[in-house]
């Protein structure tokens, strides 16, 4: 995680420097790019800080050491969902809500918000019902 923190820290520094230079070069003309570069740098700094904080709490990974071997990273990486349609439904519901906000259709915002809630609940509880149930026999 230290490498990831370093990379995001470099990106943040680069964006801050570019934002300051951009702000001086286009001072009265275009303030939105200045704000966007500074906010992007802040987001990179936020992510890099998170990775740095996490790297202090976990053991050093093989990819963080100079003498680390590929074989040391072998094994189980975690649990991943085998397949789900809920992310597609959630994306469609968010798109529907965003269209409602963009054109300010309150009825579409309501329908999209309800669809988002249904998709989020389905995504959260998909391993408690159906064929992907974990922890109990059928």
From TrEMBL:
Its EC number is 7.1.1.9. Keywords: Cell membrane, Membrane, Translocase, Transmembrane, Transmembrane helix. It catalyses: 4 Fe(II)-[cytochrome c] + O2 + 8 H(+)(in) = 4 Fe(III)-[cytochrome c] + 2 H2O + 4 H(+)(out). GO terms for molecular function: cytochrome-c oxidase activity. The keyword Chloroplast does not apply. It comes from the Bacteria. It is found in: Cell membrane. Belongs to the cytochrome c oxidase bacterial subunit CtaF family. Associates with subunits I, II and III to form cytochrome c oxidase. This is Cytochrome c oxidase polypeptide 4. It comes from Epidermidibacterium keratini. The lineage of its organism: Bacteria, Bacillati, Actinomycetota, Actinomycetes, Sporichthyales.
